[in-house]
Design a protein that fits this description.
CATH superfamily of the largest domain in chain C: P-loop containing nucleotide triphosphate hydrolases
Low-confidence stretches of chain C: 1-5, 512-521
Number of helices of chain B: 14
Distance between the termini of chain B: 63 Å
Order of helices and strands of chain B: HHHHHHHHHHHHHH
Distance between the termini of chain C: 32 Å
Low-confidence stretches of chain B: none
Radius of gyration of chain C: 24 Å
CATH architecture of the largest domain in chain C: 3-Layer(aba) Sandwich
Oligomer: heterotrimer
Shape of chain B: globular
CATH class of chain B: Mainly Alpha
Largest sheet of chain C: 7 strands, mixed
Helix content of chain C: 25-40%
Helix content of chain B: over 70%
CATH architecture of chain B: Orthogonal Bundle
CATH class of the largest domain in chain C: Alpha Beta
Chains: A mainly alpha, B mainly alpha, C alpha/beta
Radius of gyration of chain B: 19 Å
Number of strands of chain B: 0
CATH topology of the largest domain in chain C: Rossmann fold
Strand content of chain B: under 5%
Mean pLDDT of chain C: 89
């Protein structure tokens, strides 16, 4: 028995829409098996993962959980939207985690070093600094790729470790809050440097979620309606045809890296100016990497990414509630997310190929030979 | 003293060398598996766990190799049979490996591990200056050297190696000549996985015999960079791995000496060094172009 | 037949069928090849010839039908089986490995463990004995197309096959190199070998082949003795109807017309290790004329196209002039805005993005020149305007397709090429540069494309056609220049250009020495 792929003459619109759902379904099945192996009741586990955090929809008492969902989804969506443009143009920026940290550090510059600068301009300046910091950090692999032909996958990833170590050094060293006991971290930001919550009475969700939605719609519009979006797709699918069209792949490398870096940087500064309220050594729970999964689950479409971001955010919350309720390790979350990406990629094959399972080797030809 | 330093460098270089050699074979067959980090960390956690449960470090090594190979099979099935994007699938393998290993290894955190003992040959090991270096290291060190020489011999001196290189150069031509492109690539991917698993097992059984989450700390990625740095030549991988071993040992010594540079900045040196060598090697476009396997990362769907 | 002891059937194929999705690429094909004959397999692009030979060589599995080899029913499940039976193949698109040496390439198709050095020595001996000299240690990437074909042939001969399949072997050779190949083939026939010879060059087939099988739309439409046919009757069998000859009226006073495309001293260093340098190329194309550039593939045509189109710019602005304006430092978009249009050799992946729709592919080359019509304020794409332009071109060029706006890759080669050419003609460009306008295109589409190129020129544009197909160039050009080793000869006016002269130039003869030796012939 073997599996054969038969190329479809046209990509299948049906499977383009269905494949993320099939992947989700398969992940649930695989997850159920995983929980059974861990000795947990799979139905309970899946309930705590995917339903319990959503009870706020019908139970006002749990509404805060929906806010927590938005808090987790915001950075995932912001980063994944930028990554989708990178991936569509065939630029493999996998260093969003580093750009996220760079944005958080650059944006924290003002409240940490100039804590007395407290005006209405403080927060907007921080956001701009954050975006500039993320973009500048992303410009490094872009520059190296364009100028020296250096593989951007490896350079952008190496810079993640460098950013983590640099941030660690800052918050334990020169930026450490002298009154913070011996905990690493900067001083708490002043009130002008805090990103406001959307509905403070209902929960903690902050304006970062709104930024994420705006970014998703704007990038979706660019990709599907504008010349620039066309340029992104042509250069990504067929670089030579892109050059024939007169598009510059070098400029495109900078464009997508700066865009993705700025969005990751914005996510970073929103995270520290929002729920965390100061810079510390563990500002990210791997958002930059999880966003890669979000981007693919959203089929690299910014609107799909909004939905995918919410789903992945749900796994973070679900991981917490399953840990509390069932004692499932919170480490299971990352395993879950990794499986999801695998299934998403596998299911995307259905969009361009029909899958045929061949029983015995070419029986038909053999029979025909004998019959003739 | 010098002997001791060289031995520590060798210990730091060995996992990089083994993982890179495996990936080199994979890439020579035209497949780019970015999941080295994930396969390594899976090897590390299973190697540690099996050694702990059985008390035998050798069974740990064996388990690490098998799990690495099996884990790479996931990647092989997606990229070779389902023809998914190799870059994305490699990333998926790394993310899955880091997640799964964290989960599997949760109960191992803080436990003392089982160390694979260094060899001891009476007389020879006790020789001054070179005894421990040549005859007193852990067995995997010797295996890594054998592996390097063996892969070099296989690739450039055997017909099977020639076939593997041909598949990596032009899978269309290879298929037209009747070479089983996908079968060869499966074998190459599994060899790469076995090597990455072994490299991971080395980390948790020899280098630091304990389990720490994410203990590979980017070594899988550095191994990938080393393959590019070595322009797909096994003996240059050997040189590159030892160069990196020296850099990381150097920065550790600098930290220990307390020369006033913050430890985090010293710790980032291996990563910065990786970027630097990648820039130096890839700025020569001609060299990279001649050496890169021409089918690297390209999808292959045979017509039947 | 030609040699004694021959005449028995070596290969019989009965009812061989291959289906791809909904398409019957081969439909109950019958074919008989006798020992010691050169058997032609004729047919248009897409008639199913390649599918048939791939089944004979084991690269494709037949859906049904039988293959009888030396009187025995056989199943050829892989190229390895074919080789064991004694079937060898010389591929049209070579199956070679650029990063390996010639000897290593040969070793890969020999199953035994013979050391490379032995294979190299054997290959060298065989290559000299057949007059196809070859250095077995040279890297394939550094070799010319003709030399690469030698490797393919020698690799095939070293397997001592009974049947040699040659797929379009002369399409990459100069006429003189082709003559050399024919000598080799005749010698093989005299040694009792059979040859299945695929070609669409009918004169060649008439001259050399003992029998012919003609295919059309996947079916065999006739078995015939080509020596008793005319080129026209063979063409009719292949195409199924009369092919309208291209009409080309000579133009008067072209030398007084204004040059619209001028190239002066164009030189270029090789961009990659395996590409060709361009040396001091000068040429001008006037309003109203078609200038052809002949040459064997890999002599710098691709590099030349990139330089003229502006995909690669020149340091000196005066190197390329379009409609009297310096364009050397202008990119491809700028050159288009000056009135030029370009059609590259590779359709999928260069001229068109395979997975994008026809309308997206229209936009690809025209978003700048038709900016007013296609792009609104703020970079908004006007999809409806692009769509109606797409349908206009589809109508004009008679592009056959399965959906209203399908992906480029789903079209047949001929239909996609008609669309790509139509996309540029629709602009009425002052200058059109085309590389291999009808490569892999069926006869009907080819005639349509050639006629439209002539018409564009006659309406006052300058047309530059780069082609390997000499028949095509003789059909449509007013003057023909030859590219060899990165250099371009002076264009010969159509009246003075003969196949022999052009052929010698293609082989690298000094332009000045061409005339005399041939006067004697």
């Amino acid at each position: 028995m073997r599996i054969e792929l038969v190329r479809r003459p046209q990509h299948s619109a049906l499977f383009s829409a269905l494949s993320p759902f099939i992947a989700l379904g398969l992940t649930l099945v695989a997850g159920a098996i995983m929980f059974s192996l861990l000795g947990k009741n799979p139905v309970d586990a899946l309930y705590y993962y995917f339903i319990d955090p959503l009870t706020g929809i019908w139970d006002p008492g749990n509404r805060w959980q929906l806010h927590e969902l938005a808090i987790k989804a915001a950075p995932l969506i912001l980063i994944a939207v930028g990554l989708s443009v990178c991936f569509l143009s065939n630029n493999w920026n996998i260093g969003a985690e580093g750009q996220f940290i760079a944005g958080a550090v650059a944006g924290s510059f003002i409240p940490v070093l100039f804590p007395d600068f407290q005006t209405w301009a403080t927060l907007p300046l921080m956001l701009i600094f954050g975006m500039a910091g993320g973009a500048a950090y992303a410009a490094i692999p872009a520059f190296l790729k364009v100028k020296f032909n250096t593989n951007e996958i490896l350079t952008s990833l190496m810079l993640v470790y460098v950013a983590q170590l640099f941030n660690d050094w800052l918050v334990r060293g020169i930026w450490r809050n002298p009154e913070g006991m011996s905990f690493p971290g900067t001083i708490r930001f002043n009130e002008y440097a805090i990103l406001p919550q959307i509905w403070p009475d209902a929960g903690r969700a902050h304006w970062g979620f709104v930024f994420a939605l705006v970014a998703a719609v704007a990038v979706w519009f660019m990709l599907s309606k504008m010349l620039k979006g066309f340029e992104v797709k042509v250069l990504g699918q067929s670089p030579r045809a892109g050059r024939f069209a007169g598009f510059s792949s070098a400029k495109m490398v900078f464009f997508v890296f700066l865009l993705a870096g700025a969005l990751a940087g914005l996510a970073g500064i929103c995270e520290v100016a929002g729920p965390i309220e100061h810079l510390n050594e563990k500002i990210s729970i791997g958002y930059g990497f999880t966003a890669i999964i979000v981007a693919f689950l959203g089929r690299l479409n910014p609107l799909g990414i909004v939905a995918a971001g919410l789903i992945l955010a749900l796994t973070y919350l679900g991981g917490e509630s399953a840990q509390i309720a069932l004692g499932v390790s919170d480490k299971a979350v990352r395993a879950f997310q990794g499986m999801l990406l695998f299934f998403v990629l596998a299911c995307d094959t259905l969009i361009h190929y029909r899958i045929r399972i061949v029983g015995a080797l070419a029986t038909k030809a053999g029979e025909a030979t004998q019959n003739a | 003293m010098l002997e001791q330093i060289i031995i520590t460098i060798a210990t730091a270089a060995t996992p990089l060398l083994i993982a890179s050699i495996g990936e080199l074979v994979v890439e020579r067959s035209g497949v780019l598996n970015l999941g080295v980090e994930g396969m390594m960390v899976m090897g590390a956690v299973t190697g540690f766990g099996v050694a702990l449960l059985t008390g035998s470090p050798w069974l740990g090594v064996l388990a690490a190799i098998i799990v690495g190979a099996l884990f790479s099979l996931l990647f092989g099935f997606l990229t070779l049979t389902l023809v998914t994007n190799q870059v994305a699938t490699g990333l998926a393998l790394t993310l899955l490996g880091l997640g799964l290993s964290g989960m599997i290894g949760e109960s191992f955190v803080g436990l003392p591990g089982v160390k694979l003992a260094a060899i001891y040959i009476p007389g020879l090991t006790d020789l001054p200056f070179v005894g421990k270096l040549l005859f007193g290291q852990d067995p995997i060190f010797y295996l890594s050297i054998l592996l390097t020489v063996g892969v070099a011999w296989f690739l450039f001196r055997t017909r099977a190696g020639l076939t593997l290189r041909a598949v990596g150069d032009n899978h269309g031509s290879a298929h037209a000549l009747g070479i089983n492109v996908i079968g060869i690539r499966y074998l190459a991917v599994m060899f790469g996985g076995a090597c990455a698993g072994l490299a991971g097992g080395f980390l948790s059984l020899v280098y630091t015999p304990q389990w720490i989450e994410n203990m590979t700390a980017g070594r899988g990625w550095i191994a990938l960079a080393l393959v590019v740095f070595a322009s797909w030549r096994p003996l240059r991988v050997l040189a590159g791995a030892y160069l990196f071993g020296a850099v990381s040992i150097g920065q550790l010594h600098a930290q220990a000496l307390g020369i006033g540079i913050p430890s985090q900045l010293l710790s980032s040196l291996p990563y910065l060094a990786t970027i630097l060598v990648l820039v130096l090697i890839s700025r020569n476009k001609r060299l990279t172009m001649i050496n890169t396997p021409a089918s690297l990362g390209r999808p292959f769907v045979p017509d039947r | 037949m030609s040699a004694d002891g021959n005449g028995a059937n070596l290969l019989e194929v009965r009812g061989l069928t291959k289906i791809f999705g909904a398409l019957k690429a081969c439909d109950a094909v019958d074919l008989t090849i006798r020992k010691g004959e050169i058997h032609a397999l004729l047919g248009e692009n897409g008639a199913g010839k390649s599918t048939l030979v791939k089944m004979l060589f084991g690269s494709l599995e037949p859906y049904s039908g039988e293959i009888i080899w030396n009187g025995q029913a056989v199943r050829i499940t892989s190229p390895g089986v074919a080789k064991k039976l004694g079937i060898g193949m010389v591929f049209q698109h070579f199956s070679l490995f650029e990063a390996l040496s010639a000897a290593e390439n040969i070793a890969l198709s020999l199953d035994d463990q013979t050391p490379i050095s032995t294979i190299a020595a054997k290959a060298k001996a065989v290559s000299y004995s057949y007059g196809l000299p070859l250095d077995p240690y040279s890297l394939v990437g550094d070799l010319s197309v003709g030399e690469r074909q030698r490797i393919e042939i020698i690799r095939c001969l070293l397997q001592t096959p009974e049947l040699i399949i040659l797929d379009e072997p002369t399409s990459v050779l100069t006429p003189q190199e082709a003559d050399k190949l024919f000598e080799t083939l005749e010698r093989l026939r005299s040694e009792g070998k059979s040859i299945l010879y695929i070609s669409h060059r009918l004169e060649e087939v008439k001259r050399m082949c003992d029998a012919a099988t003609v295919m059309r739309h996947g079916k065999v439409v006739g078995h015939t003795d080509p020596r008793k046919e005319t080129a026209a009757s063979l063409a009719r069998m292949m195409v199924g109807s009369e092919v309208h000859a291209v009409v080309r009226a000579p133009v008067e006073g072209i030398e007084k017309a204004e040059p619209l495309l001028e190239i002066k001293n164009l030189s270029r260093k090789p961009a990659t290790p395996f590409s060709m340098a361009l040396r001091n190329i000068s040429l001008s194309v006037r309003a109203g004329e078609v200038v052809g550039i002949a040459g064997v593939a890999g002599n710098g045509q691709g590099e030349f196209f990139e330089a003229v189109s502006g995909e690669v710019k020149q340091p000196d602005a005066g190197t390329i002039r379009i409609r009297g304006k310096d364009a050397g430092r202008v990119d491809i978009t700028g050159r288009r805005l000056l009135g030029a249009a370009f059609v590259p050799e590779e359709r999928l992946g260069h001229g068109a993005a395979p997975r994008m729709t026809l309308s997206e592919n229209l936009f690809l080359s025209r978003y700048a020149t038709d900016r007013k019509a296609f792009v609104g304020a703020g970079g908004l794409v006007k999809e409806s305007a692009i769509d109606s332009a797409t349908q206009r071109i589809v109508q004009e060029m008679d592009v056959r397709k399965s959906a209203r706006n399908p992906e480029a890759a789903s079209l047949s080669g001929g239909n996609l090429q008609k669309f790509i050419i139509g996309r540029e003609l629709d602009r009425r460009p002052a200058v059109l540069v085309v590389n291999q306008p009808t490569w892999g295109v069926d006869a009907g589409a080819a005639a349509k494309i050639r006629q439209s190129l002539i018409e564009l020129a006659r309406s006052g544009s300058a047309v530059l056609v780069i082609s390997q197909d000499l028949d095509e160039l003789f059909e449509i050009s007013d003057a023909i220049a030859v590219m060899h080793n990165g250099e371009l000869s002076k264009p010969l006016p159509r009246a003075e250009a003969t196949l022999e002269k052009i052929g010698l130039l293609m082989g690298g003869a000094e332009p000045g020495h061409v005339e005399h030796p041939l006067e004697a012939v």
